[in-house]
Amino acid sequence: MPKGRGLYLSLPWDRAVVPDEEERFADAVRREAALLRASGLSGETRVVSFAVGGGDPLALSARGLGSLLRGVEAEFSFANGCERTCEGAVRSFGAVKLTALREAGFDRICMKEADGEGPERIAAAARGAREAGFPTIALDLPLDGKERGLLDGSVVDWRTIDHVSLREPRGAAPSEGEWVRRYRRAAARLEESGIKRYEITHFARPGKRSRALRLLHAGGDVIGLGPGALTSVGPMRRRNEDDPIRYGERLREGILPVREEEHLDNAARALERLFLGLRRSGGVDPRTIGRGLCPDRSPLPEEAIARLIEGGFLRGRGGRIFLSERGIVRADRIAVELLP
Amino acid sequence: MSTTETDLSRTRNFCIIAHIDHGKSTLADRILEKTGTLGKREMRDQVLDNMDLERERGITIKSHAIRIDYRDPDGGAWRFNLIDTPGHVDFSYEVSRSLAACEGALLVVDAAQGIEAQTIANFYLAMEHGLAIIPVINKIDLPAARVEAVEAAVADLTGEARERILRISARTGEGVDDVIRAMAERIPSPAGDPDAPLQALVFDSDFDSYRGVSVYVRVVNGTVRAGDRILFVSNGAEFAVDEVGILRMKRVPRGVLSAGDVGYLLAGIKRVRDARVGDTITRVSSPAERPLAGFREPKPMVFSGLYPADPGMYEALRDALDKLRLNDAAFVFEPETSNALGFGFRCGYLGLLHMEIVQERLEREYGLDLVGTVPNVVYRAVMKDGSVIRVENPRDLPSRGDLAVVEEPIVDAQLIVPSEYMGSVMKLLTEKRGEQTAMEYLEPTRVLLRFRLPLGEVVLDFYDRLKSATRGYASYDYEHVGFQASDMVRLDVLVNGDPVDALSVIVHRDKAYAWGRQLTRRLKKLIPRQLYPVAIQAALGNKVIARETVPAFRKDVTAKCYGGDITRKRKLLEKQREGKRRMKQVGSVHIPQEAFLAVLRVDDENE
Question: Are residue A176 and residue A278 in the same domain, yes or no?
Answer without folding.
Answer: no
